[in-house]
Structure formats: structure tokens, C-alpha cells
Amino acid sequence: MRLLLLLLSAACAYALHASEAGVLDWHKPQVGVPLVHSPATVPSFHRREYDNGATRSVILTATQSNVLAALNPANGSIEWRHVFDDDDRILSYRKHNDVVASLSGPGGAYLRLFDTIEGDLLVETRLHSPGAGRLFEPETLGTALAFGTEEQAGDIFVLTDGHVLRHIDRRTGDVKWGWSAPDQTSLVIYSQILATPSAVYLLGLAKSLASYTLHVTALSPTTGDLIASGDIPSSVASGFSDVVVLRDRRTSDVEPRLVWLEDKAIKSFALTPSLKAKPVVIKGATYRSIEDVGVSEYGQFVAVQEDGSGRVIRLTSEGLKVIWEYADSATSPQRSESIYAGGLDVDGYPYIARVFWSHSFRQASAHVFASHLAEGKGLVTGFTFPFKTAEHGVISHVAVDAANPEPYRVLSRLFLTTSTGAVQLWQQDQYQWTREEGLTDIRAAELVELPERKIASHVGVEQETFGARVRRQLTDAQDFPQYAVNFVRRFVTGSYASASDSVAPSGNATEPPSRDTFGFRKVIVAATSHGKFYGIDSANGNILWSRVFGLGWAAQVGGQIIPAKLFVTRTVSDGEDPQVVLVTQRKANNGLVDTVVFHVDALTGEDARGKSSTGDVLQGEDVVSGPLVEAFLLPTGHARVVVLLDEFLQVHLYPETEETRHAFDKVLPSLRIPLKSGPPGQRRLTGHQIPAQVEFTGRHIAYPTWSLPFPPTEDIRAVFARPADPVASLGKVLGNRTTLYKYLNPNLVGVVTGPAASVPASKAATCAVYLVDGAKGTVIYHSVLPSVDGECDVKAMLVENWLVYHYYDNEVGPSQAKGYRIVSVELYEGHGIDEKTRSSDLASLSNETTSVSVYEQSYVFARGITALAPTSTSYGITIKDIIVANENNQIQSFPRRFLDPRRPKHKPTAQEMEEWLIQYDPVVPDDPKRVLSHNYQVAKTRRITTSPALLESTSLVFAYGLDLFSTRVAPSNTFDVLNENFNKAQLVFTIGGLALALSIVKPVVARKRLRERWYD
Known about the structure:
Layout: H1 2-12, E1 26-28, E2 44-49, E3 55-62, E4 67-71, E5 78-83, E6 90-96, E7 99-104, E8 110-115, E9 121-126, E10 144-147, E11 156-160, E12 164-168, E13 175-180, E14 188-195, E15 200-207, E16 212-219, E17 226-236, E18 243-246, E19 257-262, E20 265-270, E21 280-282, E22 287-291, E23 300-305, E24 310-316, E25 319-325, E26 339-344, E27 350-358, E28 363-370, E29 379-385, H2 389-392, E30 395-406, E31 409-418, E32 422-427, E33 430-436, E34 442-449, H3 453-457, H4 466-477, H5 480-493, E35 522-528, E36 532-537, E37 543-548, E38 559-570, E39 579-588, E40 593-601, E41 621-624, E42 628-636, E43 639-646, E44 651-654, H6 658-667, E45 673-677, E46 684-689, E47 703-709, E48 714-721, E49 731-733, E50 739-741, E51 748-755, E52 766-773, E53 779-786, E54 795-799, E55 802-809, E56 819-829, E57 852-861, E58 865-870, E59 881-886, E60 891-895, H7 910-914, E61 941-948, E62 955-961, E63 964-969, H8 984-1015
Antiparallel strand pairs: 1-63, 2-3, 3-4, 4-5, 6-7, 7-8, 8-9, 10-11, 11-12, 12-13, 14-15, 15-16, 16-17, 18-19, 19-20, 20-21, 22-23, 23-24, 24-25, 26-27, 27-28, 28-29, 30-31, 31-32, 32-33, 34-35, 35-36, 36-37, 38-39, 39-40, 40-41, 42-43, 43-44, 45-46, 46-47, 48-51, 49-50, 51-52, 52-53, 54-55, ...
């Protein structure tokens, strides 16, 4: 039976051929926004030295997407990346010539070693159970990595759980020795390691009443025996952000020192195995912070004075010495706060760069200090570079790499991380490349149809004069002869556009984007949590435009724009440029939350309200002075209205005009709005209706009409609704010529529930899927699902009358094994065949809305999934497939026929075969031909969006998460396009031959008939 199933699937499958890879689809691998708030994870240049003296550089970084990656400094491409699981968070990484080590998981549960250039995993070892790991805040506290000295063969010292140190062989991963603090319940938390030939120092903090006290433990590097341990007389206010460990790897004559900030003074303590030294203080200045800029192992760090000016302090044999103070580095309204970064050249000499933004010159500046140049007196070189803050936000971190080709010349490369998630490389003042890593956290995305080419090229001609229009049309007419020739050539040779051709633009890049023949090319409008709006070409993934969100009044105090929902409010079908409206939440740093709307042209990114110029940040409109409860699009003819509900359930319209208010009033009687309500443990779904009367506030206020309580152990995880896709068929004709009519209640919503956070995790906890009538709160369908250790990972979708959900079943029985399940549910009107209730047109309070027949079937699914979506076509004629992103980083499609809940459990009868029903098999076949992403690794997909093309047979697919992926699928094959092998030329010649034959035969027949009449 399975063989028959596979043969049937092969006969109708839409498989991606090798020749179509990279033509019908594209894949943009990404690494994520770098983690810049901890010295253990910030980006850094790394230069590997080979035995023959050659070197090769990469940029190493750990990211917010839980990825450790290496980028090529020459072009920004990904040399390698390792994607960690979501529950295995990266805590730190450390580099050493040919090896980079990472520590991840709760308390530092896992140690991994990678080749710095190739990214090969060399060693992977579990140091303790993740469930037993100690959790600190911040999560990097209590963990550290350090490579041993050359005498220790470059082995690794690993600190985990704040009190356990291990000496690990870097080649095998074996533990040579381990040490654990005798009193693990003490207030001391170790968080840094310093390995020297004479001792391994563990540096920790002990909490006192008003501050922290430094604690140091010295261990033998060969045996791990305790040499000495004790508190250092100190009072540290801000934890390890006020502590720097200094050593100079270039010389062994200088003792390492522990440096900290105490009462605006810098103090230090010489680290010797006996720990007998006394703290000393640097006199002559007061400081507000000290910074480890990445060259502390070469004896240098930066201290920022009270006025904001920066000093470079070096470790010498006499102690700490101020060797440089950056000129004009004090805090000033004319420039931003300085960012300091350290790096090395090929000979291992340290450099420290100061980077800042000049408000006066609207450019960024860099001052690079080299302490070893100018005969040891130090040399500073500076330059400005045209960083575009309106496009990329502000600079949040800098990594520097330097070269000294001549005695008094320094060349530097700056790797910038910006507030919008972009990373850039600058070589001196020359821009090299940008990676928009902010796209790894897309919060809302829509595919918007493009206008035709002629219409697109005439964008903005509404205000042209009569003479200008005549000249333009005459210019366009010059192309008519060439168009006529091309038309004849296409007609004769049959060289028309093909549905399997690439639609990526190949002409002038300055031309506005336009639609291809079949509507495969669209613009993907996406908004990220990093404060940026993008327009992406769906044909190749290139960025067409981008805008940075303005904070409005919150720019004075700082804040963040968080996208909530995105709506297409105008399409090319309306005869004008397409426009989108993004609804966001603005969270200011002073605690205030507002709802802000951004309205842009989807083709260009221009502000549709005309309030923001092209080269400036995009300013929004404050529509609600408070948080947002719900927002939805109300399509009312030509006017599409965005309806927003605030925390008091007041109704706000955007745009709020006389036309939109009138359109809103017309649909008020039919509006039903289900909302989540209640505190945790008392969650409920509450239906609301909006009265026609306006309250004293001047706005409509929604009032509750029904309430559906859930069990105290359940909390609402998700509420989803049917997409507003067209429905071509209202029923399914069976093989015996009877009909099942689809249940198409427009108020139907789905709800996924899981264990409440207020309830302790339990294996007995359950998840559930509901289908609820949003007009009166009636439960149409309900299914209880098992949880996994109190966690629910249910993915569900609803399209037309079809519900599909996926979950993990850990229950074991005589005829059941653990595994993933996918359930297919179809809803039909009435309680039997040929029973029609017109569910799509019923009054919302009609009793017949609960008259439903449910067909349900469960299948075994091969693996877990991270996203689920149905295909979408222009008229809904094409059969629906489901598109899934699985845990193997693949995008797959599955035909609806495999998931039909009416599949018979016996050999199909003749009538059932007429319906194309196949015999039930409990396992959904994992057909590799259904993998749309073929050999691409589309990592950590969070959501899949589908959109119709002009061809009814084809649906566009856009998947986003860590990576971006786009393709197109034809679930029923391209039935509306002639096959590419169709001989169009032969058809033309055949028709032409028949026409010629008719022209010859017709007069012959006419003469023959005339002759017959004469003789008759």
C-alpha cells in the first residue's frame, strides 16, 4: 500500500529540479545581530598564523540568534557558522590561533572547540547536566574560558557554575584535573580566569551589604591544588563591569594585575601565587568607568574620567601608567559618547581606537592609538568616514584591526555593529560592505504586488503638464516598431515567458521595480524589532529600500519601536502605488508605552503622509496614547481601514477621515471581536461588539458579549483566524454524486492553550486546540493534547474548512510509540451529506452555526516543525498544500490528499477513487522530492508567509527566521500555462498551412458548385 502511495505521490508531485535551484528560489544565510553587551561575546578580528608564516583573518562573533560565526573581512561572506539550539545559549567564546572555544548552556554545560578558519567541530564535551546548571543574572556570570600558556600546550581552563574549574586537553576534550570551591553555598561567584606558568587565578566577587568584594584563588596549573585564596580589600559597586584583569603576553617580566574601580579611583593588586601583595591606587584623577577593550592580555585598557575624556593605561614593571589621553574626548553636545575598541596587528602589537559621531559634521571619526610607535612615545592617527546614521541607526560597538606598513603610518579596519542590527566594515574612510543582520528578527512581513513596467516607469507623472505628457508619450511611441517585431517573433517562434524562468531583474537597476508576466515578482515589506523597515525584492532577496524608525518625542529619553501588525492598505488594483501601514508599540525608556503607525509607499519606502524626507528617519503618527490591545484591517471597498483597540477598548481608525468613518459605521453591526482577557490562571476568551453610539470620549467603545473560560491549568498560547483568501468551491462532490458543504463560518477562530505559568510544571499537564465561534463563544471543536514535561509546542493553521495541527506525543501504549503527530480536521455543514446551512451567510446568533460534521484523522509525522502555513492562490481553485519548516532546517510541502481525513482504511472503492482518495496509512511519507529548499540549510525558521501570483496555479512562499528563503510552488502543477516542451512553432505552421489550404481550396469549391448549377 505504501508503494502505491509513493507512486501516486510521484505522479502528482511538484518536485524541484536541480536546474531550477537558485532560479525559482533564493536563500540568504545570516548569523544574527552580534552580542555586544559582554566582553566574552563581542565581535573581534582574529588572525591565524600558519607554519609557513602566512596569515589569514576572520571576524568572530556570537550573536543574539545563538550563532557562533566567522565572517570574511574581504567581502562579508560567512566563512562558517554553528547554530546552537535555543536552550543551549552561548555564554562566551575564546580564540587562540587555530582554535576557537565556546561555552554554552545553563551554567556552562557544554564546551565546543572549532577550527577558526574552516569551522570544523574539533571537540564537543558535556561538562554537566543542563538541568543541574546554576543560573545567574546576567547569564554569562559564573562562566569563563582561558587558554593556557605555551608550557601548558595551549590547553583550556573552563569555569562553570561559578565554582568549578576544569583543566581540559584541547585535543581530546579529556579533563586533566578539576577543582571545586569547598563552600559552594558561599556568596563568592567566580567569573574570570587568568592562566600563567606559575598559577591559575580564579577571580570572583563576594556580595557585601552595599557593594562587592573581590576574591582571588590561586591554583597549581599542573595539579589543580590550592595554593592560596582570600579576599582583596576592595569595594566594587557594579560587579565585573568595573573589573579588568591585566597581563602582558609579550613579556614575562611584568606581573599580572587585578584592576578595579572603587569610589571613582582606580586600584590594582599584583597577582602572585602567594597573594601577599597590597592594593595600590592611581592618583591624580577621578574616573567614572574602566573598559576592557580587548587588549587586556597585552597590558592596556581604557579609563574614562568624570568629564568623559578617555585615557589609555598600560601595565608596566612599575605598575599602572597613563600613556595617552585622547584630545577632545570629553563629553560634549557636539558629538556622541566615544566608543573604544582594541585590536592587534600582524606582529601582535596592540592598538586602541576611539570612534564617535560628530553632530556638527554629520560624519563619524576614528582616532587610532599605537603605543609602540614613535620610539615608544605613542602615535595617534585619525580619519573621518561617512557613516549613514539615517540608514543604519547609531554605532553600538566597534572592533578594530590594524596594520603598520610604514613607521609613521597606521591603516585600520573597523567592524561596526549598529542599533538597527546592521554590521559594516570600513577600511579607513572607505566603505567595504554591509550585512543587514537585523533581518534575523522580522516581526511582521507581507508580500505586495508590483505594478506593470510601464505603469511603474510612469510613477509620479500625475502632476505633469500637457506638453510634458505629449513629449513622454511620443518618446514611448518610438519603441513601438521594436515591440511589433518582437511580438511577431514571439508569435512565430513561441518564445514566450516561461513559468520556470527567473524573474530577477537584469536591466537598469535604477528603474522602479515592476511586475513580471506571471506576477511572480513582488516586494516583501518587512519590519524588524531593531527599529528598521525593509523592502525586499522577492525575485532575488536584494534590498530595494530601508528606513529607520523615528522615536518621535521618545528620542529625548530613548526607547524602542516594536512592530505589532502589518497591513496592505492599497494595492495596484486600486490604480495607485501600493501602500502599507505598520502598527507598532513604542516603549520609551521612561516607562511610557504608545501605539505608533508608520504609513509608507511599498515600492520606494517613502512616507505616504509626506512628513519625513527621503534622507531622514521615518517618523510615525501617534494614534493611541497607551498600549495596543488589538488591530485588524477592515476592507471596505476602495477604502481599507485599520481598526485599533486601546487598553480601554476604545476604537481608533487609521486613517481617520469622513470616508473611513462612514465605511466603518456600515460594517459595525457585523463586527465580532474575540480578545484574550483575565489574569494568568484565569484566562478566558471574551467576545466583543462595537455599538453604533459614540461614547462621551468621542469614540466607540467595545463591550463584552460572551466569555469562554478555560480550565485554571490552561493558558492561552495563541489565537489564530482563517486567512481572507477566496473560496472557489463551497462544497465537495463525492463519488456517489452527493455533496458535503464546507463549514465556512466567517467568525470561526482557533485557540491553542497550554499549561499556565502559575502552575508548577507537571507531566500530567495538557495542551488543547479549540475552534470557537467568535460571534457567541460556542466551542465547535476541541482536542486535548499531551504536553512534554509541562511544555507545549503545538503548531496550527486554519484555512477554509480545514484545520491542521502538529504536536509531539510522548505517550506510550501497546500499539503506540512516542513521536510527532499531525492531525487533519475538516468541518462540513449539517450532520450529514447534502445538508446545507449556508454557514458563510448565516446570522451570527443563528443556532445552525453549531450544526457541524467533523471529519478527523491523525498521522505520524517524521519530525518536529517550527512553522506551518497553507498555500494561497488568486481564486482559491488550486488545491491547498501545507508548507512546513522542519527541525532539519528544510522547507517542505505536503499535498492535501495525504492529509485528507476521509482517507478510507480499506481498499478504495470505485466511488472513492473518483474522489482521488487513497487508502489510509498512519505515516505521512517523508518524500525528499517535496523538499522545496533542496540542499539549502534554512535555519531557525519562525514563520512562513504565502501569497498568490497572477497564475492561479502558483503560490509564492517566503520563510523567515535566522535565514531568509523564498520560492514558488504549484500544488496542482502549472495547469494554466502551456508546457515548455509544447511545440508552438509547429502549431503556428499547422494553422498557417490550414489557412493556406483553405484559401486555395475555397475558390476551387466555389467554381465547382457554380459549374454544377449551370449543368443541373
